[in-house]
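ok so for the tutorial part 2 we go from a plain amino acid sequence to predicted structure tokens. step 1 is just haveing the sequence, like this:
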Amino acid sequence: MVVQTVLHRLFTATACMCSCCRVLQAREMVYKRMVEIGRVVFIARGDNSGKLAAIVDVVDGNRALVDGPSSGVCRSVRNFKDLQLTKFTIPLRHGMRTKNVKKSYDEAKINEKWAGTLWAQKIAKKQLRAKMTDFDRFKLMRAKQLRNRIVRIEMAKLKKASKVSKK
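step 2 — the prediction. this is what the tokens look like for a chain of 167 residues:
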């Protein structure tokens, strides 16, 4: 029986909908972002935190050589715990020189692409809120109150109109 199941899995077309084949078809790659040479990373901790760099070489299972000449990150060995992988990759070769990394980085327009991501916008919004003064927070609170009041009034009008139309 086991041999038949294995043979069935191997030689059945992908259109088969038996339970064993459905399980196999449902599997997808869990991780989309892999550590690779040319992967653009966001430095989350340590010096140069908040900047982008590219992986130039993988030192071992815990560390990588990163370089970000366009973003002001000096070539250095970083722990993977301090890096967050982005969806961007640039064409780099193993151990590429800094000037060539800068050229590839700029040709791929990584900074412009990064600025358009929700991740970068969220970080920018967080930094903007951190820089707010007490008076700025007060003005924001009042603006939200005004917006909520307008929404509440419009919702009341719509509810009243729907009650009248039901009668």
